[in-house]
Automatic annotation (TrEMBL):
This is Molybdenum cofactor guanylyltransferase. Its EC number is 2.7.7.77. The keyword Magnesium applies. Its cofactor is Mg(2+). Monomer. It holds the Pfam family NTP_transf_3. NCBIfam families: molyb_mobA (TIGR02665). Belongs to the MobA family. Mg(2+) binds at D104. It is found in: Cytoplasm. Transmembrane segments: none annotated. Transfers a GMP moiety from GTP to Mo-molybdopterin (Mo-MPT) cofactor (Moco or molybdenum cofactor) to form Mo-molybdopterin guanine dinucleotide (Mo-MGD) cofactor. It catalyses: Mo-molybdopterin + GTP + H(+) = Mo-molybdopterin guanine dinucleotide + diphosphate.
């Protein structure tokens, strides 16, 4: 952490239904001899003060030794519901903000949290972004810094039917931290068996 930044807690978003992977807990697929979620935890732990897992269903199926936070919004409300669960948990710890990462993205930057903190807008919000092969910059809204002071506003928005993350973050002037995609997009996520095979190749190339 650099001067002016402080460690914050983080929530791993694992509440998706993994339909393109045949269902189940996608973060428990094996990559390079370890589960996807183990890769995520290894990259995240040095950057944050505490980690929780956002997932629905029976929490006893997880063996990570982490708090398991279910969505507090009824129905499948998408990643924002997991962000809200993380914000409420962070508030209970006395933290000012929480960082979110996705459970299926094993190569995200090791300076993610610091860069998000540096990019935060006046509201304290920040999202990660990276360019594609054409140079177009895409936001990755499951990777963000979320001030707990906005959690009641987010809950109200979700209860009103909002599901698209950027509609809410744009409303609050989120800052953007843009990361390099050289040699590959650090936010490459594993949605399909083909993506898992591609990730194996990336790990092999790094090794």
């Amino acid at each position: 952490m650099t001067e002016g930044t402080a460690k914050v807690p983080a929530v791993i978003l694992a509440g998706g239904r993994a339909t393109r992977m045949g269902g189940g807990d996608k973060g428990w697929r094996i990559l390079g001899g370890k589960r996807l979620v183990d890769h995520v935890i290894a990259r995240l732990a040095p950057q944050v003060s505490a980690i929780a897992l956002n997932a629905n269903g029976d929490p006893d199926r997880f063996d990570l030794g982490l708090p398991v936070l279910p969505d507090s919004i009824d129905g499948y409300a998408g990643p924002l519901a997991g962000v809200l669960a993380g914000m409420d948990w962070a508030a209970s710890l006395g933290a000012d903000a929480v960082v979110s990462v996705a459970a299926d993205t094993p190569f995200f930057p090791t300076d993610l949290v610091m860069r998000l903190q540096q990019a935060a807008g006046p509201s304290g919000l920040a999202l990660a972004a990276s360019p594609d092969e054409t140079g177009k910059v895409w936001q990755h809204p499951t990777f963000g810094l979320w001030p707990v002071a906005l959690r009641h506003d987010l809950r109200e928005a979700l209860e009103g039917g909002l599901r698209k993350i950027v509609l809410w973050t744009d409303r609050h002037g989120a800052g953007i931290a843009t990361f390099s995609s050289d040699p590959h997009d650090p936010f490459f996520n594993v949605n399909t068996p083909e993506d898992l095979a591609q990730s194996e190749a990336l790990i092999g190339a790094a090794g």
